[in-house]
């Protein structure tokens, strides 16, 4: 689904990520941990072709991202739902329109019933007409998750989705991500929250990737 072959990345100031080879199998559940500034967001950006590796190869759905045309990149990204760290909503549009935005950008029209089902699934059906600035942190994260899955992606990438949430809301969001994984989606979550990882491991066979000394390694059973 997503494969890295000897991937390195640098922003121009020395190598941030080096010699990374790994494979995220279809339907797998992974966490990505590492100190602040280690390169977790950068790694996620490589996973959805927002960045291209400075050396090595990133394969998305068996195709090398470096060989993809702009149109191919756009099509590939529709198969990958991303929950960004800062959510980024259009504040003048209601929540429902924000969640539907990826459909509009792709020139597709979704069924109103599907949108209602999706908002109900994340527990935001009563806030469909609310504007983003009036939402709580947990509501924003659930809206961001709904927006990430509205195109029916095969892969969900989430960057610190529980960063500013209390424990109950973190668990609620985790439950949604576990449900998506049980539906067959591949899930990768960047997080600092070791309690969240422990909790997830009691629900799904999650594996933990850790960035240390520029490498991404599979963490042992110490979590
Ligand atoms: N566009 C950019 N140009 C130059 N340097 C960048 C850019 N984006 C990120 N960096 C640097 O790359 C390093 C890794 O950043 P990244 O955001 O990937 O780390 P992170 O592990 O996600 O951090 P955090 O846990 O704090 O979110 C940091 O030192 C950051 O300052």
UniProtKB/TrEMBL annotation:
GO molecular function terms attached to this record: ATP binding; ATP hydrolysis activity; transmembrane transporter activity
ABC transporter domain sequence ranges: 2-223
Signal peptide as annotated in the record: none
Keywords: ATP-binding, Nucleotide-binding
Any matching Pfam family: ABC_tran
SUPFAM superfamilies xrefs: P-loop containing nucleoside triphosphate hydrolases
This protein's record includes keyword Repeat: no
Superkingdom field: Bacteria
Gene Ontology annotations for the cellular component aspect, listed alphabetically: plasma membrane
Gene3D superfamilies in the cross-refs: P-loop containing nucleotide triphosphate hydrolases (3.40.50.300)
Name assigned to this protein: ATP-binding cassette domain-containing protein
Source species: Tabrizicola oligotrophica
